[in-house]
Amino acid sequence: MRRHVRAKTLLNEQRKITDMVLRELGDVGYWGLLVDREYGGSAAPFISFARFLRQMATVDPTVAGLAWCMACIGAGRSRASVRIACAESGTTCQSWPAVSVLSAFALTEPCAGSDLTALKTEAKLEGDHYVVNGEKLFITNAIAGRTIGLVCLIDKKPPC
Q1: Domain count within the chain
Q2: Rounded to two decimals, what is the model's pTM?
Q3: Would you call 2 exposed, middle or buried from its count of C-beta atoms within 10 A (0-12, 13-18, 19+)?
Q4: Distance CA 139, CA 149 (A)
Q5: Which residues form the domain of 148?
Q6: Closest to 31 (Cα-Cα) out of 42, 47, 46
Q7: What integer pLDDT is reported at residue 55 of this predicted model?
Q8: 121 lies in the same domain as 155
Q9: Concatenated DSSP letters for the chain?
Q10: Average pLDDT by consecutive 10-residue portion of the chain (160 residues)?
């Protein structure tokens, strides 16, 4: 990260973190710090993860924030983290294809903010699939094709 900051290659013309930087972070295991080893992650203890993020934030707070979202409120240790951790090395494991390195996270709603008790977006099971109706704002890492952690009501109940 320091190398990219010095070389001014961290951000693109839109002042977004470059795809090259995101890929390099995946190559060194940044996105799988809290993912279990059996799924290709580092299984870092949370205290070590928090200390590392504090250090990363001194170099670039946005990159530290992305890892926080990924690990703590995004994919974390969920089934989706298997796919994300495997994508870091460009391999497949547990039959997950290597596609995206980052996940997206959708919580915030226009009239609810991040208040889980005020959510309006709802998923309804129709056959073998859920149909989602609602609106989300400020979706972290939202790019087509990424795994999305969607926080919504299911059967009119908030997530547990």
Answers
A1: 2
A2: 0.60
A3: exposed
A4: 10
A5: 103-160
A6: 42
A7: 94
A8: yes
A9: -HHHHHHT-SB-TTS-B-HHHHHHHHHTTGGGTTS-GGGTS----HHHHHHHHHHHHHH-HHHHHHHHIIIIISSTTSHHHHHHHHHHTT--BTTB----SS-EEE--BTTTBT-GGG---EEEEETTEEEEES---S-BT--TTS-EEE--EETTB---
A10: 95 90 84 77 88 93 83 52 49 38 78 86 91 88 75 81
- Identify residue 145 by its one-letter amino acid code: G
CATH number where 22 lies: 1.10.540.10
Residue 17, strand partner residues: 11
> What's the CA gap between 72 and 151, in Å, rounded?
14
> What is the total residue count of the chain?
160
Asked which of 64, 99, 134 is the last residue of a domain, the reply is 99
Contact 86, 147 (CB under 8 A): no
Q: The tokens of 52 are what?
A: 């590392």
Q: Taking a C-beta distance cutoff of 8 angstroms, is the pair 75, 67 a contact?
A: no
